[in-house]
Input
Amino acid sequence: MKQLTDSGNLDRFFTTLARADNALLMLDYDGTLAPFVADPMKAAPYPGVRERLQRIAAGPRTYLTM
Output
């Protein structure tokens, strides 16, 4: 597994990602996809997050697990 560490060049990152045989996307919910709240059960995702995740999940090379 190769870790991409160059956070300063997004074009290169996405070019490398598109050519990869395999890729892994790991996300944390509270504070990443949704703002921090005192009660995690009340956390709601930022606008557009659900739609973007649905597009990723619908991809032909995507396997989704929770």
In short: The radius of gyration is 14 Å. The mean pLDDT is 82. The chain has two helices and no strands. The helical segments are 10-19, 49-57.
